[in-house]
From TrEMBL:
<keyword id="KW-0413">Isomerase</keyword>
<dbReference type="InterPro" id="IPR020103">
    <property type="entry name" value="PsdUridine_synth_cat_dom_sf"/>
</dbReference>
<dbReference type="InterPro" id="IPR006225">
    <property type="entry name" value="PsdUridine_synth_RluC/D"/>
</dbReference>
<dbReference type="InterPro" id="IPR006145">
    <property type="entry name" value="PsdUridine_synth_RsuA/RluA"/>
</dbReference>
<dbReference type="Pfam" id="PF00849">
    <property type="entry name" value="PseudoU_synth_2"/>
</dbReference>
<comment type="function">
    <text>Responsible for synthesis of pseudouridine from uracil.</text>
</comment>
<dbReference type="Pfam" id="PF01479">
    <property type="entry name" value="S4"/>
</dbReference>
<comment type="similarity">
    <text>Belongs to the pseudouridine synthase RluA family.</text>
</comment>
<dbReference type="InterPro" id="IPR002942">
    <property type="entry name" value="S4_RNA-bd"/>
</dbReference>
<feature type="domain" description="RNA-binding S4">
    <location>
        <begin position="15"/>
        <end position="74"/>
    </location>
</feature>
<protein>
    <recommendedName>
        <fullName>Pseudouridine synthase</fullName>
        <ecNumber>5.4.99.-</ecNumber>
    </recommendedName>
</protein>
<keyword id="KW-0694">RNA-binding</keyword>
<dbReference type="InterPro" id="IPR036986">
    <property type="entry name" value="S4_RNA-bd_sf"/>
</dbReference>
<dbReference type="InterPro" id="IPR050188">
    <property type="entry name" value="RluA_PseudoU_synthase"/>
</dbReference>
Length: 302
């Protein structure tokens, strides 16, 4: 991502935002308009999509531009086959890898709530988030009451979550519980690290299969901290494949790893209206299956 940090000067008093971004940012006006339309322009820290917005001296303009070839275009639709459950209060979907749960710095298009809302024909609210490259079960609310109840349930750790991860090696020990607090990494924006002064975080885990190349690990997070599974498994010497930010390789031998190999396979929670137990499961996606088959094949049946 390319970022432009611009300050409105006295000479720019009353200038249109699109013209200012183009002139001061050294980019074409067409590119400036595309960045505005996509939601990649922020005025004094707030997203602004009004090309004709007039500026005043001292204002801060941040422009986030997706670098050419660095990312695929935003998804425009969600297949109905990814719908796992729906009623008047909530909906559960199998989130594809690559779809953001919320607007990014470069765009507010193609987010999961937008895609699910389009599929159902009504707006929805995200109540818990998977990382962009993580696939699997995600729940969204269809009413304000359900959103409040579900958000509180996730905040207090009520739902039971099960993930599958492909790691560079088995965690040590191969089964157990990680209880390591997590905090922001001051040296790397947006990332987390083990920090005794951070927020409490715990993850149960067990190694399902392992080979000389990789391991298939089941992770059961008891809390919902940002990047929790990724940091905890890395702390056990088992970084996720496709996760170079936490030490995981993008290639193992001849096998290219397309993304962070993490899949939210199962979610069990109480229905926010009826209290009934809901068990939601998402099938393992093809890219995960292919990497698993190549690196951690199942043992032959005797």
């Amino acid at each position: 991502m390319r970022r432009l940090n611009l300050v409105v000067s006295e000479a720019d008093q009353g200038e249109r935002l699109d013209r200012f971004v183009a002139a001061r940012g050294g980019i074409s006006r067409g590119l400036a308009r595309r960045a505005l339309d996509a939601g990649g322009v922020f005025l004094d820290g707030r997203r602004c999509k009004v090309a004709g917005k007039t500026l005043r001296p001292g204002q801060q303009v941040t422009v986030n531009l997706e670098e050419a070839g660095r990312a695929a275009g935003a998804a425009t639709a969600l297949e109905r086959s990814r719908l796992l459950y729906a009623d008047a209060a909530l909906v559960a979907v199998d989130k594809p890898a690559g779809v953001p749960a919320q607007p990014t710095l470069t765009t507010d298009r193609g987010t999961l709530p937008e895609l699910v809302g389009a599929l159902l024909g009504s707006p929805v609210t995200i109540v818990h988030r998977l990382d962009r490259e993580t696939s699997g079960v995600t729940v969204l609310a269809r009413t304000k009451a359900a959103a409040a109840a579900l958000s509180e349930a996730f905040r207090t750790g009520g739902p039971s979550k099960t993930y599958l991860a492909l790691t560079a090696r088995p965690p040590a020990p191969p089964e157990g519980r990680v209880d390591l607090a997590l905090g922001k990494d001051p040296a790397r924006a947006g990332l987390r690290r083990v920090d005794p002064a951070g927020e409490a975080a715990a993850t149960g885990y067990r190694t399902l299969r392992a080979s000389a190349l990789a391991a298939l690990v089941e992770a059961r997070p008891e809390t919902g901290r940002t990047h929790q599974i990724r940091v905890h498994l890395a702390a056990l010497g088992a970084p996720l494949l496709g996760d170079p930010r936490y030490g995981g390789p993008r290639r193992v031998g001849e096998v290219a790893i397309p993304r962070v190999m993490l899949h939210a396979a199962r979610l069990e929670l109480a229905h926010p209206v009826t209290g009934a137990s809901l068990v939601l499961e998402a099938p393992v996606p093809e890219d995960f299956r292919a990497a698993e088959a190549a690196l951690v094949p199942p043992l032959p049946v005797a």
